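Predict the structure of Putative septation protein SpoVG.
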Amino acid sequence: MQITDVRVRRIEKEGKMKAIVSITLDNEFVIHDIKVIEGEKGLFIAMPSRKAADGEYRDIAHPINSETRDLIQNVILTKYETTALESEGESIIA
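Done. Here is the predicted structure for Putative septation protein SpoVG.
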């Protein structure tokens, strides 16, 4: 499995959620609404989820193992940091 595209939509409001991300796998399958969240130990991702009848949130799509989760998280956070640096550069130039 290859992550062939990552699209980051930054959230400008104050709060823990920093971005919403879509990833494409093998140029064939897209996962939307992955959240980049700032936690106590730094940035992490939360997979798309839905509130169940019991009030708990359950992931709609998620990796089966920790290696795949780490791969997805590393690719997303690298792209997020790249877009953050690009937008800082635009702010300085403007």
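The chain has a mean pLDDT of 91.
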